[in-house]
Amino acid sequence: MSLIVVDASVAAAWLLPNQATDMADALFAEWEAHSGIAPGIFAIETRALLLKAERRLWIREKQLTDARARLQRFNITLWPTPEADALEDLVELARSAEVSLYDALYLGLALETGAELATRDGRLIGAATRLGVTVRDLRSATGLHED
Question: 2-145 is classed in which CATH architecture?
């Protein structure tokens, strides 16, 4: 069983038809063979994207409710937000990798655990690849980048 850090763009691809990609569908099809982890902010980001989808009329209330229930079944373990003293290290990672502080949470978790990183975020893919993290690029045809 491999360990994979998933970001909110992965959940979006799994939950919202207009965000789906073939690579995200392929990862979902084999998900039971993996163990998913994400920083605690994943819970907020995923609900925010579902709320945004409802407001943009991409989904209706029942679809929103169903998506939240499906999200729980993905069995993604949430890691706690770093303590205050570790936040400065996270800020430095964000600065040096040229990613947002939010993306640095995902990147830092992959670096800390040695897990693969699954995402559709191009900037995050580039930063992770430069730092030697194995990336599942859920936007692409091949889907796997290794340094």
Answer: 3-Layer(aba) Sandwich (3.40)
